[in-house]
Every structure is written in structure tokens, then in C-alpha cells.
Design brief:
Helices cover about 40% and strands about 10% of the residues. With about 700 residues, it is α/β, with parallel strands linked by helices. It has three domains: about 130 residues, Chitobiase/beta-hexosaminidase domain 2-like (Chitobiase, domain 2, 2-Layer Sandwich), CATH 3.30.379.10; about 325 residues, Alpha-Beta Barrel (TIM Barrel); about 150 residues, Alpha-d-glucuronidase, C-terminal Domain. An eight-stranded parallel barrel has the order 7-8-9-10-11-12-13-14. The longest helix has about 35 residues. The structure holds beta-D-glucopyranuronic acid (BDP).
């Protein structure tokens, strides 16, 4: 009787187990299908390796852990398998039919003489191969007759953490910093290892650990000790650490009179500091620099250029493998200018003057991580400079941690854009993977969305954006649907119908978000400072280009920023083919229309509606679509873990409330210009513009 009770208790506890999301996509829960488990088990009877580097050992351990969880059996690891079959061989080798086509970090998986061989030229390649094999099992793929050859398209696949020494995270929406600086180097939080595993599983091989608005403190011996401890944890997972540096450090830290990059003492200071860092972290990745941007110090403070600053650091890095990542996110406060053009204009004369060790990191669009931006005009216009991509995974302008927005389609839209730099097919992806101009260094960075929250990203679906970023950095030709399918199968649901529904929800989520926030190519209308919720009426700020009216330019005639003529002419920064695409308001895609044109409220668009009616349609429809997402999610209840289900359900409710906030704020504000009623069948909002303006206080945002 007692035994029966225990069994019953175990049964109940297993079935009520709530998933707190902490295991991300590496859940390794026992596969329910016994037959399927047996098939996998027969192919994974042992694990062996031919070279015991720490990274290869990591790979073997990960496989062991994965098999134990997924297949419910402990598999032994040994050096050299002998004549056994039915196992996994991890093999570092320089040649061989599959290995010849591999570059650093690439891997091949094939069946050979009754075993599955994961081969690579480097230990990290073996690690990525091991995770690929596990992913195949997690997503229920067959392991028979495997022939996978996979090379990363981009060399440095990196997360940028905007984490501060005091534990806060700039634009972080998932708790506080995951780095426990006060505990380091003495205590290693086990989450660092989970973090490393998650990154390695999607091919991320670099992390800058502190905010780009950088404190010099990170270069002190005290902090280098701490960063070394982090680097030691990440190293066996193939991840190299970068530090964001403050350009004024020679003065603030070194006591010098200047930080002028051409001053010999300043150069010596950086040379010595770089050497010192390498004593702590021999495989140091390099520096990430935000200079002369939003008040940060930089070479222009001394009448020098970005290239002078970057090249000085590159010189300090010369004896080592590391590199210098120099951000192109710069803009001056010129009320007569157009911020769209600032970075291009500051950097264009410097093309060809940067040291090969420098990568200029460019945000995907010309303004600032807006939900939809045309690709940055620097892509395709700097043939002699290594250009890297900077995406924002943390959803500063994309609903932060309450709105469900799957970002892979946004990343893809930018990567797949054609710059026409060298004729048709010169995509942004080819610029940043180095293939268009045969550059050796290539980079894709993503501003991380990780924090101290148990599930890392607050919104369970935000995990998918971290996942998608890594997968696309590895292979930008993957489709958003493919990536979503993988992620769903590994995290949320095994049931096919449920998977399909969730994928559809994810694929529709970004267009829905854009619809009730920034339709038709509007931009930068969010609340001041906190960047949450709408504030299209914002007309005064520290700088004109921090207001909303600077961007939407609403007046009694129409809406949108004329970048064809007028003060801007920004469209001319693009190649003629691109100009043709966006230059004519009759032909310009509605997605980008108001980025480039000031369109009359009464103008009939390709949809048959006037601009005003179309705008209203999108705002109202966006809200309805959120409600539909809620209904879909409700229908998935029996198929989803309870805790995750309730978590998402609650956030969708907030999303609905805030979609309404966006809708009412924008239509009530723009109607003051159009003076045209909201078209039927939509009903005029029940609250007034003044009431909506007060919401920012009611929601405690200000
Ligand atoms: C902006 C953020 C700000 C960052 C800046 C940057 O609001 O917090 O410091 O980007 O990228 O979008 O440097």
C-alpha cells in the first residue's frame, strides 16, 4: 500500500512539474516515445574522443548529459573507442573527406563503420557538432546516414552585455545583471556555466561583458581578476571575453593629462594595459568601444578621428590575437540635419584608413533599433572597412519583456536586403560575413536580453530571440520558420498541431507589433527616456533628435519624413537601385513609406485606403490581432507546461492593454492634424488625448 502511495505521489509530482524556463532550449527531458528512444539509444551506446582538450571534454560531457536526460541512460565516455560500434566518436583531424571543407569552428557529422563521427579541425568545431547532434535528437530527426557539413558564416558571433558594475543592466528587462561582480572572483555562480552552454549550443563564441557606456573600473586589476574568473568559466565552451572600454581611461585610471590617441604616453598606456589584460586572460577577445556618441568620450575630443582612436587600440592589440570593435552609432545634435545620415557622413571619409584588426560595428538601421528600419546605408558603401552587424536582442523598442515579438524576421529582413554594392545579390549578409569584399574578420553582435530572472529573459518567448540571433550568426541563410520550429520543439511543445500554432503566432508577432506601434514606416515615437509606450506628442527634449516630432513630422498636410529632397536627401546614400525601390512614393513598399516620404493624409495608397484610413486600419487591426493571439494561446493550454502557459497568458493580457494604449495615443494625437474622423467601422476611442497622456504616470513610468 505504502509503495503504491509513493508511486502515486511520484506520478502526481512528475505531472505537475512546472517548468521555470531556466533550462532554456537545453531541457533534455526524457523523450516520451519509447520506440524512438530505443532507436536513438542503439546509436549512442558510447562516447569517445581522440584529443582531450577542455573543449572536447565539454562536448563529451554535454552529450553524456543530453543522452541521460533524453534517452534515460548513462553513456560512458572513453578515450579511443577501439573496435566498438553504435557510438559517437569525437574526432579532431586535419584532413579526411568531410574535414577538408571545414573552416575554423566548422564540423562534419557522418555515419562511418557503425558509428556516428563528429569531426572538426578545432575543438570548438567538435563542440558545435555535439550540440547539432543533440538538437537533432531534441527535434526528433533521424540519425541514420547522417551527412552534415556545417561552417559558420560569420567568424565572431557575439553577445554584447550592457551590464554595469553596480548590477543594473542598461535596457535590461529581465531582472538585474547576471554577473555578480561583488562575488567574483571568489564565487562562481553556476548560472555562468548554464549561460556558456546555452551560447555554445547555438554557436556564440564571444561576449563583451559590460555596458558600452563603459566605466573605466573594468580595466582595474581588481576587475580584471573578476573578468578572468568569468573568462575561465567560458573558455571550455569556446567563448572569448571582450571588454567595453572608456576612451578616457588613460586620464581617469592612468592619471595622464590627456587621452589623445596620438599622444605617445597615451599609446604606451594602452599598450601596457593590453599586455596586462593578457596576463589575466591570455585569449582575450578584444575591446568594444562606444566613442563620441551620446556623451561618451572619444578621439574627437582631441580633434582626432574615429580611425585614429581605433587604430591606436589596434596597435596595442598587435602582439595578440584580439581585435578592436569600434561602434558606428554616432550622431550630432544638428536640428537642421538628418540623424539618418550622421554615421555615414562621419565614417565615409575614413573608409580604407582603419587597421585590419578593427571591425566597425554598425547597427542594423540608421537611427536606433526601431522595430522596422531600412538597412543602414553604411552597409555596401565601405568596401575597404570590416563592417560588423549590431542587432538588439533586448527589446528596448519592441515591447521589452511584455510584448510577444519574435525578432528573427526582423534580423532576416535586414540581412537579406540587397545593397547592390557590387550588383544584384550584394546583400547585407554578404557585407557582414566578409564574403562581398573578401574581408577576413567578420562579426555579428547582438545586445543581450539576459538577466537574473530565473528564465533568463522574463518573457518566455524572448528566449527565442536569443536563440534565433545565435542561429543566424552561425548561418544567416536559415529561415525564421526553421529557427522557430527548432526552438518550439526544444522548449514549448512536442505536439505537431501545437507547434504549428505557436510558429504561426511567432511569425505574425512582429507585423502585429509594428501595426499597433509604428505602422507604414513611422519611427521613434516612444516614451522619453524609458522608451516604453507611446509619446508621439514629444516635442521637447535634450536634443531635437530625441523627440518624436523630429521623426514623424506630422502637419495639417500629412505625415512622414521627406528624405528625398528637403533638408535630408538621405536616400542618395544608397545605390541607385535602392533609390529606385524607395524613392517613388507610388512604388515604395508601405513598410518603408513614411521613412522616406511626407505623404498627404488624403493620399490614396496601394491598399485603396487614404493614408489616414490606412493608419487607423493598422492601429485598430493590430489590437484585434493581439486578441487573436490570446485566443490561440488559450487553445494551447492542454499542450503547454502550466507555469509557462500562465506566464505568457499574463503577458499577452498586458500586451493587449498596451496595444490599446499605443492605438489610442497615436490616433488621438494624429487626428489633431488630420481633423478627419476615424473611419467606420472603427469607433473613436472612449478616452481623451489628455487622459492617454496621463497613462505614463499611472503606469509609473515617470
Ligand atoms: C540606445 C539606448 C542607449 C544605448 C545606445 C547605444 O537607448 O541606452 O546606450 O542605444 O547603443 O538605443 O549606445
Amino acid at each position: 500500500m505504502f509503495r503504491k502511495l509513493i508511486i502515486l505521489f511520484l506520478f502526481i509530482s512528475v505531472n505537475t512539474f512546472a517548468d521555470d524556463g531556466s533550462r532554456l532550449w537545453l531541457k533534455y527531458d526524457l523523450l516520451k516515445d519509447v520506440k524512438q528512444r530505443e532507436v536513438y539509444a542503439s546509436l549512442t551506446k558510447h562516447i569517445s574522443f581522440n584529443e582531450d582538450s577542455p573543449i572536447v571534454i565539454t562536448a563529451a560531457n554535454e552529450l553524456q548529459m543530453g543522452f541521460e536526460g533524453l534517452l534515460g541512460k548513462k553513456v560512458l565516455i572513453s578515450k579511443n573507442m577501439g573496435s566498438k560500434t553504435g557510438g559517437i566518436i569525437l574526432e579532431i583531424s586535419a584532413d579526411g573527406p568531410n574535414v577538408q571543407n571545414l573552416i575554423e569552428d566548422g564540423f562534419a557529422i557522418h555515419s562511418q563503420k557503425g558509428n556516428i563521427v563528429i569531426s572538426a579541425k578545432t575543438p570548438s568545431g567538435v563542440l558545435y557538432g555535439a550540440f547539432e547532434l543533440l538538437r537533432n535528437i531534441q527535434t526528433g530527426k533521424s540519425l541514420n546516414k547522417l551527412t552534415i557539413v556545417s561552417n559558420p558564416k560569420v567568424k565572431i558571433r557575439m553577445l554584447n552585455h550592457w551590464d554595469n558594475a553596480n548590477g543594473t543592466v542598461e535596457r535590461g528587462y529581465a531582472g538585474s545583471s547576471m554577473w555578480k561582480w561583488t562575488e567574483l572572483p571568489f564565487r562562481i555562480d553556476p548560472r555562468y556555466i548554464q549561460y556558456a552552454r546555452a551560447n555554445a549550443s547555438i554557436g556564440i563564441n564571444a561576449a563583451s561583458i559590460n555596458n558600452v557606456n563603459a566605466s573605466s573600473r573594468f580595466l582595474t586589476p581588481e576587475y580584471l581578476e573578476k573578468i578572468k574568473a568569468v573568462a575561465d568559466v567560458l573558455r571550455p565552451y569556446g567563448i572569448r571575453v571582450f571588454i567595453s572600454v572608456n576612451f578616457r581611461s588613460p586620464r581617469t585610471l592612468g592619471g595622464l593629462k590627456t587621452s589623445d590617441p596620438l599622444d605617445p604616453e597615451v599609446r604606451k598606456w594602452w599598450n601596457d594595459k593590453t599586455k596586462e589584460i593578457h596576463e589575466y586572460i591570455p585569449d582575450f577577445g578584444g575591446f568594444l568601444v562606444k566613442a563620441n556618441s551620446e556623451g561618451e568620450p572619444g578621439p574627437q575630443d582631441y580633434g582626432r578621428t574615429h580611425a585614429d582612436g581605433a587604430n591606436m587600440l589596434a596597435e596595442a592589440m598587435r602582439p595578440f590575437k584580439g581585435i578592436v570593435i569600434w561602434r558606428a552609432f554616432v550622431y550630432n545634435a544638428d536640428p537642421k540635419g538628418d540623424r539618418f545620415k550622421e554615421a555615414y557622413e562621419q565614417f565615409k571619409p575614413l573608409d580604407g584608413t582603419f587597421d585590419p584588426k578593427v571591425i566597425v560595428q554598425v547597427k542594423n538601421g540608421p537611427i536606433d533599433f526601431m522595430p522596422r528600419e531600412p538597412f543602414h546605408p553604411m552597409f555596401g558603401a565601405f568596401p575597404k572597412t570590416n563592417l560588423g552587424m549590431e542587432f538588439q536582442i533586448t527589446q528596448e523598442y519592441l515591447g521589452q519583456s511584455t510584448h510577444l515579438t519574435y525578432l528573427a524576421p526582423m534580423f532576416k529582413e535586414c540581412l537579406d536586403s540587397d545593397t547592390f554594392a557590387k550588383g544584384k545579390g550584394s546583400t547585407v549578409a554578404k557585407v557582414i560575413d566578409g564574403s562581398l569584399e573578401s574581408h577576413q574578420n567578420s562579426l555579428m553582435a547582438g545586445v543581450a536580453n539576459t538577466g537574473s530572472d530565473v528564465n533568463w529573459t522574463a518573457h518566455p518567448f524572448n528566449q527565442a530571440n536569443w536563440y534565433a540571433f545565435g542561429r543566424l550568426a552561425w548561418d544567416h541563410s536559415l529561415t525564421s520558420e526553421q529557427i522557430a520550429s527548432e526552438w518550439i520543439a526544444m522548449t514549448l511543445a512536442k505536439n505537431k498541431t501545437a507547434q504549428d500554432k505557436i510558429r504561426t503566432m511567432m511569425m505574425q508577432s512582429l507585423p502585429i507589433y509594428i501595426s499597433y506601434t509604428y505602422p507604414l514606416g513611422t519611427a521613434h515615437m516612444m516614451g522619453e527616456g524609458h522608451h516604453y509606450g507611446p509619446e508621439p506628442w514629444l516635442a521637447k527634449s535634450g536634443r531635437p533628435d530625441w523627440t518624436s516630432v523630429y521623426y514623424h513630422r506630422a502637419d495639417s498636410v500629412g505625415l512622414g519624413f521627406d528624405r528625398i529632397g528637403g533638408i535630408s536627401n538621405a536616400l542618395t546614400l544608397y545605390k541607385p537601385e535602392v533609390q529606385k525601390l524607395w524613392g517613388n512614393p507610388e512604388q515604395c513598399s508601405l513598410d518603408y513609406l513614411l521613412w522616406f516620404h511626407h505623404v498627404a493624409w488624403t493620399k490614396k495608397l496601394s491598399t485603396g485606403r487614404t493614408l489616414w484610413n490606412e493608419l487607423c486600419f493598422r492601429y485598430y487591426d493590430g489590437v484585434e490581432q493581439v486578441k487573436k493571439m490570446e485566443t490561440t494561446w488559450e487553445s494551447l493550454k492542454p499542450k503547454i507546461d502550466k507555469e509557462t502557459f500562465e506566464n505568457v497568458k499574463g503577458r499577452l493580457k498586458i500586451q493587449e492593454k498596451e496595444a490599446l494604449w499605443w492605438r489610442d495615443a497615436c490616433v488621438l494625437y494624429f487626428i489633431t492634424y488630420t481633423k478627419t474622423p476615424i473611419p467606420a467601422p472603427f469607433l473613436h476611442p472612449t478616452r481623451t488625448l489628455d487622459e492617454v497622456k496621463k497613462l505614463v504616470e499611472i503606469y509609473h513610468l515617470r
